[in-house]
Amino acid sequence: MSAPYKPPLAVHLVWHPSDKDSVDPIIQAVSKHLSRDVERPFSRNLNIPLFFYSSDSPDTPPCGPPQGLAARDILFVSTSVNTRGREVWNDYSPKGILRAGPPEIISGPETGRSINGGNRLSRGNGEGVAKAPPLPNTCSASCVEGPSQSSANNVSHIKSLISMFRKNKDSEKIDARARNTPFGAWREALTNKGHSRTRSVWIYVQGSSFRRNSVNLDTPFYLIDETRMIKYLERIDYVRRKSGAKSVLALKCFSNWCVFELMRGYMDGTTSSGVYEARLGHERFGGETHGYCVAYTKGEVKEIVRYCDKIIFNSLGQLRTYKDMVGGISVGLRINPGVGWSCHPTCDPVRRYSRLGAPSSTLPTDIGAEIDGAMFHYNCDHEDFDGFARQLQTMENDFGDLLHQLKWVSLGGGVAFTKDGYPLDDFCHLLKEFGERFHVQLYLEPGEAAVTHSTSLVVTVLDIVRNERTMLIVDAGTEPHLLDVLTYGYAPTLEEGEILAGSSAEEFRGSDNGHVYVVCGRTCLAGDEFGVYRFDRKIKIGDRLHFNNAGGYSMVKKNWFNGIGMPSIAHKKLDGSVRIVHAPTYEDYLREKQNT
């Protein structure tokens, strides 16, 4: 008979700082199973202390186990990625991460071997097993190599692992999912054959950060990274569940359908600003499809009703012209509430003379009888929750009678509620109360909020020129590839450098300011500049740079200005694999220009 299973006394989750974004889903998975709350370090069910560490040491986690623990008391687990593309990982293999070999117990009670100082071990057939990291204080330990799969599967596998901690059952009854996965090896160790108890479990998580210099992709290219995106999608899903408000992706911001399979699990559908976006949302995303346009033609109305669950008109004139053509589709009207927020007048939906939405002063008293719902889109990149709450109160005061007559209300997009530090619980409470007070289904239309920090534009330095300032010429341009840099006059964040606010030539003379460069595009536009950055090293021709947060309003606006090669689009999935979604060629350029 198998010995009764005893849960560990502590679980330690360790990662390298460079992998922080990609291990976030794993952190969430572990927290959900042990603590239910990321902020609470103790499990309500098992009272297992859960510790998170970020270790930049190449050899060991940042802190050791309690003094006096024997080797048998510690289980060290590494979720090593070791089968996909060795050309990717061989260039980046800290000693603290197992590099190769299938999942199996490589030391412990079954083999009588232990890891001391990272000696190379052998399997029973004599083949070599990857070098494993020593534990802190050179303490030996039972060590199990993680699944030979990309870190994407780490989430489900770690859930299986943690589920073992929650099942106080005999080893034969431990989670069947784990028994049928590479984590079966972990199961064997966790049942403690020959052990009294596993005192401390160390899980060293290798994230799936994209080792860009090891991947043979020609620049420029956009990299859409699901491991970075999921953090924000989970926040959207949290708001859905806590507030009752549905979320539809704003395709005007991001419409790369290669990641729709992931996104649809966290959102309710899409909203569009034109017929083609509506069709894309209907065919590729699914769920609810909302159709909106500043102005429709008669033919477009006939087409868009084939794809949409809701159609939203921008003006009273369009509503009354085309309402009878929509059949049984739910009809809405965009309303300008007169209050809003934007950091730039160009994108302020409620600015003076705005053409977006019917002004409240023009609405007839019986408008509620003509529509099922209303869209109030009045923000752009609004990060202030208190300001949003005041806006919502103003809407209640001004439109209370109308709201009571509606079935649904869209609050539009432009609210940065997925940003780190945003008071999500307060946000959810506010939305829930609003929806319940007026008995309406609320909708949010996140665009940028859904893809924040998910996408990079990767470029190469082609030339370095000097004219009072030192300028790096890269193989992309602001106007064709990051148009909002020109439109709104901001500098995109750069992974390798720090943005400098000033740009006068005098600031860059001498070496006191470190390595300061103006990063410029290669179009003929004189002002084709991404921004001024300080680097911690000298930049050379051939170096790669990575503009972060390049997902929203970038690929939807890219163009063939100057006939410069269009960036490819690369898609990094949760399992760490990278594929080229589209690599534009001259033929694409020719098709674009054939009628110009």
Short structural summary:
The protein is 24% helix and 20% strand.
Describe what you observe in this structure.
Residues 1-9, 15-19, 33-159 and 161-214 have low confidence and may be disordered. The longest helix has 19 residues, at 385-403. This protein has 3 domains: 10-209, no CATH class; 214-220 and 453-593, Lyase, Ornithine Decarboxylase, Chain A, domain 1 (Beta Barrel); 227-451, TIM Barrel, CATH 3.20.20. Strand 16 (408-410), helix 12 (424-438) and strand 17 (441-444) form a beta-alpha-beta unit. It is of the alpha/beta class and 596 residues long. The termini are far apart. Strands 8, 18, 19, 20, 21, 22, 23, 24 and 25 form a 9-stranded mixed beta sheet that branches. The chain has an 8-stranded parallel β-barrel with strand order 9-10-11-12-13-15-16-17, surrounded by 4 helices. A 5-stranded parallel beta sheet has the order 2-1-7-3-6, covered by helices on one side. It is built from 16 helices and 25 strands. Helix content is 24%, strand content 20%.
